[in-house]
Amino acid sequence: MNAILAAHAVDPTLETFENDVWWITLIKLLGVFVLLLLLTLFTINYERKVVARMAVRPGPNQVGPKGWLQSLTDGLKLPFKEEIIPKTADKVVYFIAPVISATTAFTAFSVIPFGGVVNMFGQQTALQLTDVPVSVLVLLACSSMAVYGVVLAGWASGSTYPLLGGLRSSAQMISYEVAMGLSIVAVFMTSGSMSTSQIVAAQASGQPVNLFGFDITAPGWYALLLLPSFVIYMIAAVGETNRAPFDLPEAESELVGGFHTEYSSFKFALFFLAEYINMITVSAFCTTLFLGGWRAPAPITTVWEGANSGYFPLIWFFGKVLILLFGFIWLRATLPRLRYDQFMRFGWKVLIPVNLVWILFLAYFKVARSGQLSDEVRWISTAAIAVVVLLVAWGWPGAKKPKPVPIQEELAQRPPGSFPIPPMDLQVPPSPRARRAVAERAPATVGGDPETKEV
């Protein structure tokens, strides 16, 4: 398989992008821009149709063939709607915020590889706008800058609900940015590069690995080789893009619409565009880091030798992206929104600790594989790791959860005259009327008197 890939897929290098002429770079820049716009229009309709299918309803079916032009008409309609700007808004920041969100969303896609080296108008160039030795850090920087658009939009609106949505978004993105960054560290350690094109090349085929004295062939895709990092990345990506069930900055139930409540017309369209481009970007980033990038799956390459040559990699790349986008839509259609304290606790107390432990284990594995440890140290450390894993699976001795206090006792312990605060789990005691209704509906004992309950 290595010979097939070497013969039919030419991996780009950093010199490939340095040799591009200016008009080829301009064509690729325009192509990425148009591609993102078309993907956004498609993804909006894709989501509406999939959610409608899951809810057993028609969905968009009037505009265009089977309703596929509905999102295009919506996009053309929004800029011509009346724009309402609050009197208390900071006009300059109010205008800049959606521009920041849309600009960072477009910029992040510039280092995503769509394929290998191809012939474009007589010039040898890669199906990628540009690449640098730290391309992954460029993506992380763009996603970190996107929070400014949301926070500034909430603050500049001059309203309470957008401000609360902006504050939520800042805490949410910072928390899940840490988990996402830690999940990518494992990819750096395994591939030995931060260049997106080199990470894709590192997943070309399986590699021989010596695991504690046993020679095995590691899978090519990092989604299998680094499964914990892949799962954590997917969860963090949903939180990073403010999608359900993590769409707390836009929570309609308590914040009306969140940070963009006071936005309308074209500025609202920019926020809408940024949200869907961010979905596409994190899906393309996941495809690049964990799913082999633009390379076809192994069963296809064994049957078809030229699957990774020419423009065919575009099919495999966007096929993987659409599958990941379906996962976003599936979550929105099936899961309820988390409570904010549950969401933050999950990020800081579950995702980040698990990620740190996984990185330490991976670092130990790389050191043990390099032969720098003696056999005795290797076996002792392996036994220690096994003991720790068993203890965590069984539960630490003495780490029993405290006995829950009944709600009646909590109410009795409240100081007199204090304001009654409902518990966080919302398990309030039933009202006397509800208790009487339950008692009236209780069935009588079989074979006994329904009044005295005597048998």
Automatic annotation (TrEMBL):
Q: What class of enzyme is it?
A: translocase
What keywords are annotated for this sequence in UniProt? Cell membrane, Membrane, NAD, Quinone, Translocase, Transmembrane, Transmembrane helix, Ubiquinone
Compartment annotation: Cell membrane; Membrane
Annotated transmembrane regions: 21-44, 92-114, 134-157, 178-201, 221-239, 268-294, 314-334, 346-365, 377-396
Enzyme Commission code: 7.1.1.-
The lineage's top-level taxon is: Bacteria
Where is the secretion signal located?
none
Residues covered by region (Disordered): 412-455
Give a Gene Ontology cellular component term annotated to this protein.
plasma membrane
Q: How does it sit in the membrane?
A: Multi-pass membrane protein
Catalytic reactions on record: a quinone + NADH + 5 H(+)(in) = a quinol + NAD(+) + 4 H(+)(out)
Q: Which GO terms describe its biological process?
A: aerobic respiration
Q: Which GO terms describe its molecular function?
A: NADH dehydrogenase activity; oxidoreductase activity, acting on NAD(P)H, quinone or similar compound as acceptor; quinone binding
Similarity annotation: Belongs to the complex I subunit 1 family.
Q: How does it assemble?
A: NDH-1 is composed of 14 different subunits. Subunits NuoA, H, J, K, L, M, N constitute the membrane sector of the complex.
Instruction: Extract the HAMAP family matched here.
Output: NDH1_NuoH (MF_01350)
What function does this protein fulfil? NDH-1 shuttles electrons from NADH, via FMN and iron-sulfur (Fe-S) centers, to quinones in the respiratory chain. The immediate electron acceptor for the enzyme in this species is believed to be ubiquinone. Couples the redox reaction to proton translocation (for every two electrons transferred, four hydrogen ions are translocated across the cytoplasmic membrane), and thus conserves the redox energy in a proton gradient. This subunit may bind ubiquinone.
Q: What is this protein called?
A: NADH-quinone oxidoreductase subunit H
Organism expressing this protein natively: Actinoplanes missouriensis (strain ATCC 14538 / DSM 43046 / CBS 188.64 / JCM 3121 / NBRC 102363 / NCIMB 12654 / NRRL B-3342 / UNCC 431)
